[in-house]
Design brief:
901 residues; 47% helix; seven-stranded parallel beta sheet; single chain; binds adenosine-5'-triphosphate
């Protein structure tokens, strides 16, 4: 309706315009409609966007207004002649003139726009559009742009609705248009004409006021264009904002009503129920050189050297957020904490290592500014190696504290010898010889409690990797102690001038306490600070970063971390599982192929042999449910391989048969075994060198938790967490001694060409041995590594192509972490789960509950497929008992192998 009206109005406006713009005294029609239209026209001119980016354009506008105002004056001046000029011919002339006038106005407008194009405003708009079109707009900028676009769209809509800027077109519609000929109309016309003039005068006054104001505004010449200085400054500020490196934006998970209800009933906080989601695909990768990462040339160089060209999805999401707050401390507001859940092998370690290295590399004085807490010492060593790669070229110092070395040795590394004696006077700001400490919780607590001058007050980053794993541990109240140590003590120990402090403090020669830069947040613990209106003026600068592939959503556990302004980032495939949650929790790597083999318990070793000999599985990790189980399987496979290879016959069947025939074969095997033992012994001794300083050792075993495997399949996450609680190394003081050498050494040195090289790995191994086995596996010297769950989490063993769940895990989390040792960093890999008949139902339920069932293929191994392996296997089984007894004796002698659970 308005469109039709608009058309009429336009035509009439043209007429009126022609009537009012002509300078001849003969052509102005004076109908009531024309008067109304004249009024509208005036308003239109008033409501036209009057952007005046430069004096020049402002002049243009002014002159345009002047011109527009002349006809109106004329209209008034020649008002008496209007009746006479209401002829068709005259109207045509005035219409033509009006068009010319309009064309001139459009040309002026065009010229003004061209000038504007040169201006900073135009550049900002262009940049804003570019940003808007890219998906790299920070949320605040995006919101601003959105608001701006909405306002613009609304204005345009309004303009369409009311083309003359009149908010009530009804007035126009209601007005009689043309042909009014009675006296009353004439009077109205006269009155309208007066009103019209008044309004024109008012507009003119406003314009003049504006011009007066503008006179006082300083003008600058920028890029050859004159601009008001304040406008130029505003545009420059906008341009600066646009130049800020934008953060990537990601989808935020839309929470369904069901999920909301569920989260609420479970007490899950909003931020945890509402993660920022990132697709775990290559699309989310970004080149490391992108400005949003803010990496220095040095770091980029190190990354490239390490073969890292792009940041993976989790890194793309996390690094810019961390790099945004590049300060080292002494800030008023701590940066928000971050919880990150991303699949195994997706690159979580670099997501914190790279920004920590980059940010800390600005530091001048060495202080302990980053603490990385991990559940096992093998993981600590692995993460240290990663830090070491990227700190090259800086003087940052990285250390581990895992109990690998003596406590005194670690103290000396952390605070220096002079600060580590029990009676060393305290330096209030503490002392540190390292910038980054990577540690297990038990050992950390020991240092917090017993190392003088060890302090966490300068901490900038607290990383809790494998967070859900660690949060299951209440050992020594480790979290409580850490949180206490990063906050100023509630019992203030003010240092009075009279030295009445309760702690022994290092003092200078004048008797003043040496504080060596107490962290701002801790000052109030030691000194009576002046009263301040500002509450807590110096906030702590520590940022807590939690990482896991299966991050807990247990509200109590999350609450125990005392997170501040937290954000939850989740790398996961889109959507939720049937129950709205579990699928999101358990995303497996895209390149992972999963199978299950249902078999009898007694057939499981045979299935392993089938995978090795028929499916040619190599570079495999085989997880068992306990240290004992790992050891037994290791011995069995080793024996099988010995029987097979000592016959020097390639085929396993032929090997077994020929061994059965030849009575001397067993002796021959024994001889070979002895030779191998001697070679293994040499290897072990050399591997142990340099470790004589050990005073403590891990005591906690690696798995064993799942022994209660008949637990309820509907167990909640909490149960699941509890069920996995024992592979965190807590560094209790337990003596480490020699080992059963034979049982820990891969068969590589004496194995014939086609032998399967098998080794075992568990917490029963001495530390040096663990490292050498991992090295050998990484070098491809071990084909099958039979292990406990000690390395089921976090360990990044690059060559793992296959994971075998020899004992299928009872909990989904454990399954996810185990199978996640393969298909890492975008590679492919295969997982086989050997599921006993009686476990099949539970296994299926567990996998189905996690929305994962359709991903698992079922393999039926027929008896004839393993027929060629049976005889050798039975033979090996026959000899196993003796081997286990002798290895157990050797273990007892060495006082290391624990009694099996
Ligand atoms: N941007 C990258 N480019 C190439 N390789 C990468 C990149 N980021 C990480 N990697 C490699 O991917 C592998 C897995 O990374 P990482 O160990 O950090 O995974 P994760 O997510 O911590 O896994 P898990 O949950 O098992 O601990 C490592 O070998 C690492 O070097």
């Amino acid at each position: 309706m308005f469109n039709i009206r608009r058309f009429d109005i336009e035509a009439e406006t043209a007429q009126e315009s022609s009537a009012t713009t002509t300078t001849t005294a003969t052509t102005t029609p004076t109908t009531p409609a024309n008067n109304i239209l004249a009024k509208l026209n005036a308003r239109l001119n008033k409501n036209k966007p009057q952007h005046t980016p430069s004096t020049a354009s402002s002049d243009n506008n002014t002159s345009s207004k002047d011109k527009d105002s002349i006809p109106n004056k004329d209209t008034h001046k020649h008002k008496k002649d209007r009746d006479a000029t209401n002829s068709k011919g005259t109207n045509e002339i005035s219409y033509k003139r009006s068009r010319e006038e309009e064309d001139a106005r459009v040309a002026r407008e065009e010229a003004r726009r061209n000038k504007e194009q040169q201006s900073g405003k135009q550049r900002w708009e262009k940049r804003a559009k570019e940003l808007k079109d890219s998906d790299l707009v920070p949320n605040d900028v995006r919101l601003a742009l959105k608001a701006e676009a909405e306002a613009k769209a609304k204005a345009e809509k309004e303009a369409k609705k009311f083309p003359f800027g009149v908010p009530a077109p009804v007035v126009v519609a209601a007005a009689p248009i043309g042909g009014a000929d009675d006296e009353e109309d004439e009077d109205e016309d006269m009155e309208d004409g007066d009103e019209d003039k008044d309004e024109q005068d008012l507009d003119q006054d406003e314009d003049e006021d504006q011009e007066d104001d503008n006179k006082d505004r300083p003008v600058l010449e920028l890029d050859g264009v004159e601009r008001f200085a304040d406008e130029a400054a505003a545009d420059a500020a906008l341009a600066e904002l646009a130049a800020l490196v934008p953060l990537p934006t990601f989808e935020t998970k839309e929470i369904t009503a069901l999920e909301k209800e569920r989260a609420k009933s479970m007490g899950i906080p909003d931020w945890l129920a509402h993660p920022t989601l990132i697709e775990p695909s290559e699309k989310s990768n970004r080149p490391i050189t992108e400005p949003m990462f803010g990496f220095s040339d040095r770091l980029i160089k190190q990354c490239k050297k390490a073969g890292i060209e792009e940041c993976f999805a989790v890194q793309t999401a996390v690094i810019p957020v961390l790099m945004r707050a590049r300060h080292l401390g002494d800030i008023r507001r701590a940066p928000g904490d971050l919880c990150v859940s991303a699949p195994t092998g997706s690159g979580k370690t670099l997501a914190y290592v790279l920004p920590i290295v980059e940010i800390l590399s600005q530091r001048v004085v060495t202080r302990l500014r980053a603490l990385v807490v991990l559940p096992t010492r093998d993981l600590c060593i692995q993460v240290k190696e990663t830090f070491d790669t990227f700190v090259k070229g800086t003087d940052l110092k990285i250390a581990t504290s895992t109990g690998q070395n003596s406590f005194a040795h670690e103290q000396a590394i952390l605070v220096g010898e002079s600060h580590s004696f029990p009676n060393s006077p305290r330096v209030l700001g503490g002392h540190s010889r390292v910038d980054v400490l990577i540690t297990t919780p038990g050992r950390l607590i020991d240092h917090i409690k017993s190392t003088p001058n060890f302090t966490l007050q300068h901490l900038r980053f607290l990383v809790i990797d494998e967070a859900d794993r660690l949060l299951n541990q209440s050992f020594q109240d480790w979290l409580f102690h850490i949180l206490n140590a990063i906050h100023p003590s509630p019992e203030r120990k003010f240092l009075g001038v009279d030295g009445s402090e309760s702690i022994q403090v290092k003092r200078d020669h004048l008797g003043f306490p040496i504080h060596d830069a107490i962290a701002p947040g801790f000052l109030s613990s030691f000194f009576q600070l002046p009263e301040s209106d500002v509450e807590d003026p110096k906030a702590l600068s520590v940022q807590k970063l939690l990482f896991s592939a299966t991050l807990t959503r247990n509200p109590a556990k999350i609450a125990s971390l005392q997170l501040s302004d937290p954000q939850y980032v989740a790398v996961q495939e889109g959507g939720s599982g049937q129950d709205g949650e579990d699928k999101a929790k358990y995303t497996t790597p895209a390149g992972l192929t999963e199978h299950m083999i249902v078999c009898e318990t007694s057939e499981k070793p045979l299935m392993v042999l089938h995978l090795l000999h028929h499916l040619k599985v190599r570079s495999a990790l085989c997880f068992t449910k306990s240290v004992e189980s790992a050891h037994r399987l290791y011995k069995l496979i080793q024996l099988y391989e010995k029987i097979r290879t000592t016959t020097l016959v390639a085929s396993p069947v032929a090997a077994v048969e020929s061994k059965e025939e030849g009575s001397g074969a067993g002796k021959k095997a024994d001889k070979t075994d002895k030779k191998k033992k001697s070679a293994d012994k040499d290897q072990d001794i050399s591997g142990s060198e340099g470790e004589s300083d050990e005073s403590s050792s891990e005591s906690e075993d690696d798995d064993s938790s799942s022994s209660g495997s008949d637990s309820d399949s509907s167990s909640e996450e909490e149960d699941e967490d509890e069920g996995e609680s024992s592979d965190v190394e807590m560094e209790q003081a337990v003596a480490s001694t020699d080992m059963d050498i034979d049982s820990t050494t891969p068969t590589a040195p004496t194995a014939p060409m086609d032998a399967i090289v098998v080794a075992e790995f568990s917490s029963d191994l001495p530390k040096s041995k663990r490292a050498s086995i991992l090295r050998a596996f990484n070098n491809g010297e071990i084909h099958l590594l039979i292990c406990s769950d000690l390395i089921s989490r976090g360990m990044d063993l690059s060559p793992v192509s296959t994971v075998i769940n020899y004992d299928s895990p009872v909990y989904m989390k454990k399954y996810i972490h185990r199978v996640g040792r393969t298909a890492r960093a975008g590679k492919t890999g295969t997982a086989y789960s050997l599921v006993e008949m009686q476990e099949a139902r539970h296994f299926k339920e567990m996998i189905t509950k996690a929305g994962h069932w359709e991903k698992i293929g079922r393999i039926n191994v027929k008896p004839q497929e393993v027929k060629d392996l049976v005889k050798g296997y039975e033979k090996a089984l026959g000899g196993l008992k003796d081997v286990l007894v002798s290895s157990s004796r050797a273990g007892k002698k060495g006082n290391v192998r624990r009694s099996f659970k």
